[in-house]
Design goal:
This protein is mostly helical. Helix content is 72%, strand content 3%. It has a two-stranded parallel sheet. Helix 9 packs antiparallel against helix 11. It is globular and about 60 Å long.
Length: 379
């Protein structure tokens, strides 16, 4: 085994261990949440931990990335840890100052001080949040469209991953000696300009990179306090009670995306099944929540004891069918809409943000195999 092969193995092992460490932390947090009465959050967090074990095992045997992409991901995790550590230290200093100086309404305050005062002056976990806060939270679901552009592009726009891949190739040629020092000979780089395979790897890099950014910040929120979370600082959105001693919904939905995309990489589901699940999970959930909160008059208790509305269910199912109709055709769209309704109404403890991006692609794929109808509108 030569030096660069050893480096490759080291990076890949580090990435696998990262998932296993996250799994242990998720089990710890989920158990704590379950024991303190947050059963939905606790169960969903534990299930996420199980999926992280699957990710770690998959990466150690099949691999998410080829070298040097696995190294790029490990460096990204290191950068995220460093940035969160710096932010944690800055907030800790400001919290100590606030405790010693006390609250002074007349003093001119920095953005950090105003943030710390807001986060420490009230209980940031709410049973119900305002429509404005719900709108802010659900706006992140629009990133499903970004994922679509990353993989397919949009009209004249090339897939973002292809642009990034070609830019990386240009960059490593421009900085040849430095790249050779850090990553090995240029001839070891596995891709050429315009190749499709990097799109598959870079899309997974975007998903895992987003997960690492979100989950490290979320773990700090859970294990220490919400004011230490970079993600909370950036979003300024209120937290729900079911997120106390449990992961946030952004963790569940990204984890579901990664699992389904892993199935696509393994050749088990169609790419349009995957993207149907992504967009239905993002857009239908957002439509159901926003329409239900704004216009929901006919209330219904779901099996988890949450109160939702018939208007919200109708909006979510209609959007699910429209998304499926566009991506996989009218027949499979029905399957996606039905699964969305089932995962929204029936689960008692598990978050729909985790279930939708997993069960919708798998359900559509099963019916593709059973029915054998063409998928989508294009060959």
């Amino acid at each position: 085994m030569d030096y660069w092969t050893s480096v490759d193995e080291l990076y890949n092992t580090t990435l696998s261990l990262s998932f296993f460490v996250l799994a242990i932390l998720m089990f710890y947090i989920g158990r704590k949440g379950y024991k303190t009465g947050n059963r939905p959050g606790g169960v969903s967090t534990i299930i996420s931990g199980v999926l992280f074990i699957i990710f770690g095992y998959y990466n150690s045997t099949v691999r998410f990335f080829v070298y040097p992409y696995n190294g790029f991901m490990v460096w990204w995790i290191g950068i995220i840890l460093l940035l969160n550590g710096i932010f944690f230290k800055i907030i800790r200093i400001d919290v100590n100052k606030l405790n010693s100086e006390g609250y002074n309404p007349d003093k001119k305050k920095s953005i950090i001080r105003r943030y710390v005062e807001t986060m420490t002056s009230e209980n940031f976990y709410r049973e119900k949040i305002t429509f404005k806060m719900e709108l802010i939270r659900k706006s992140f679901h629009l990133t499903g469209f970004l994922l679509l552009v990353v993989y397919f592009g949009f009209y004249p726009l090339y897939p973002l991953t292809l642009i990034i891949s070609d830019s990386v190739i240009q960059l490593i040629n421009d900085i040849g000696p430095l790249y050779t020092l850090l990553w090995g000979d240029l001839s070891l780089f596995p891709f050429v300009r315009g190749e499709f395979l990097p799109i598959i790897y870079l899309t997974m890099m975007a998903l895992i990179g987003a997960l690492m950014f979100a989950i490290i910040s979320d773990l700090i929120r859970i294990l220490w306090s919400p004011e230490y979370s970079v993600f909370n600082f950036l979003t300024r959105s209120m937290l729900r009670t079911k997120e106390k001693n449990a992961s946030g919904p952004q963790i569940y939905i990204i984890t579901g995306f990664i699992f389904s995309y892993m199935l696509y990489m393994a050749g088990l589901i169609h790419i349009l099944s995957f993207f149907s699940g992504v967009l239905i999970a993002c857009l239908s959930d957002a439509a159901a929540a926003l329409i239900g909160q704004r216009y929901g008059k006919h209330k219904v208790k779901v099996r988890s004891k949450d109160t939702k509305s018939i208007e919200g269910f109708v909006a979510g199912v209609v959007v699910a069918y429209i998304v499926g109709f566009i991506l996989v055709g009218p027949i499979y769209a029905i399957i996606g809409a039905v699964i969305f309704f089932i995962t929204d109404y029936f689960p008692i403890f598990t978050a729909d943000n985790l279930l939708n991006p997993i069960f919708i692609p798998i359900g559509i794929q099963l019916f593709i195999l059973i029915l054998g109808f063409p998928v989508g509108w294009w060959p």
